[in-house]
Amino acid sequence: MFQMSSLSKKESPLLNAGYSVKSFIRDNMGILIGLVVLCIVITIINPNFLTSNNLLNVLRQTSTNLYLALAMTMIIILGGIDLSVGSIMAVTGVATTSLIAFFDAPVVVAVAVGLLVGMLFGAVNGYVAATTVIPPFIITLATMNIARGTAYVITDGKPVRVMSDSFNFIGSGYLFGIVPMPVVYLVILLILCYLIMNKTKLGRYMYAVGGNAEAAKFSGINIKKIKFFAYTFSGLMAAVAGIVLASRMFSGQPTAGNAAELDAIAAVVLGGTSMTGGYGRIGGTVIGALIIGVLSNGLNLMGVSSFWQYIVKGFVILVAVYADVIKRRKAIEA
After folding, report:
1. 30: which of 39, 185, 218, 281 lies 20 to 30 Å off by Cα?
2. What architecture is domain 21-38+68-333?
3. DSSP 89
4. pLDDT tens track for 6-21
């Protein structure tokens, strides 16, 4: 039986069999209150925030970020980081649209290839992270540039426009004419990730590796396989995000996903996942992503320049990480 020496029984959601909705609300009370207050403030400033069309728009934007953030949660729990997800979004988007626009490939085939491209980049990240001592920051920084450069090479820096109704339905369609398709995918992926992290050995092993890699190794856990899966899954989620975004934009853009990793990391750390690894929950990441989505939407409604939005999000990440450090320090002292 492996030991999680750096986590207390109270801290680990997987060791607490009685974890419930009540516990979830209690553990995330701070960010839940922050989300509610943020919504109230934005509504006071601009009542259009609460319109159904705008709320659906927030869900669409949040869903794309959450595709990345769900996998990023796993990686950060392992004590790693993935800076390449935004660039993988771009290369998978242009690869998919190029197959449709230039080679008249069936949408199903093009999407499958796009997903495989994303998984390939993720697998490279995972393999190098698992078999070398190169820090994940450096590994994914390198693949970030490779993927972005590949996207520019494929398109010569130009958008690849696609006028296929079946492809455009992926990101712009509605289920039963009500629920945006990106939200449908999100619900499915949320359930999948929740099951992985809370109901499988794989999820328990991720917490063990992030909490104490040496103890996990001596317990017989194959750390290399765990890391390889996490980064490959991250590549797959980035591909999903890239294809959905390309469908919404009716084109593959080599600039797509620029700084998307920033929003994903912000959502994860805001959701309470520790940057030092070993602790975090998918539910917290969802709340963190909603905060980022509402914040971005609110700033847009208030006419704040996108340049200032980068600054605001940067401060959000800084404050969230600082709060995590203080929280962990108090936990150790206690």
Report:
1. 185
2. Orthogonal Bundle (1.10)
3. H
4. 444 444 444 443 456 7
